[in-house]
What we know:
Blueprint: H1 5-18, H2 23-35, H3 39-52, H4 61-64, H5 67-72, E1 106-107, E2 112-114, E3 120-122, E4 131-136, H6 142-152, H7 155-160, E5 165-169, H8 173-178, E6 186-189, H9 194-198, E7 202-203, E8 208-209, E9 211-216, E10 221-228, H10 235-246, H11 253-256
Parallel strand pairs: 4-5, 5-6
Antiparallel strand pairs: 1-10, 2-3, 4-9, 7-8, 9-10
Helix pairs in contact: 1-2, 2-3
Amino acid sequence: ALGDPAKACEIAKGVADSEKNQLAPWALLAWMQWSAGRRDEAIATFQEVRRLAGHADTDLPSLRRLAPLAEAAGVSGDWRTPPPAATDTGVRPDLATLGPPQWQAWQAGEWSAVSVAGEPVLAASLRGRAHVVILTLGQACTHCNQQVKAFVDKAAAFEKAGLPIVIVSTDTPTAIRDSGETLPYAVHSGADGAAFRALDAWDDFEGKPLHATCFIAADGRMRWQHVGYEPFMLPDFLLEETRRLLELPENPECLLRR
């Protein structure tokens, strides 16, 4: 078809007809018809291009060169035809029912544990104070022992920051008491797994608890959390992060303006 505009348009028309809902071949056909002087055919093809280009970027070279066709068709500005709304998407819920438009710290689960004295310990007992909850897999976990030691070494820094730390272990109250360890933090038993489940530190597939370190604000919202098969070993980072988060408003104005 080189040097033969009529043949080139014929080939382009065949390709476009075989790709009914593809924008590229129809845009090419419209441009070729226009270039070949087939004004009426080009404008008719351009109407199909408008339909197919509903979501396309008109700054693409293959569409930008169709500006003369839009002018000839009497279309100014955005010449794309908005696609009709889909009718097969099911029920569209009100966006407000799907949650806040900006990220917000979620309300931490109401965990419960048992003290070494056999008394119940509830999350509500710490409400009103920012605090850290560390969920460990007991004394049998060497990684947990290393984590506890790392946080014990920073006990003075956390105390100075006004951040109490509570440890919930998978060990029973008796096992914790019989260990003979004296820690600067309260250690409670979560042997029933309730605290781990409440704080999303539970592997549902394996049916086992996970390591977790949680920073919970005074209002009970989870402002920072690390959950996984390995414990969080960076107390210095957590200390700095808690300071940073406590200085931030719950709903920053910059987010609400977006």
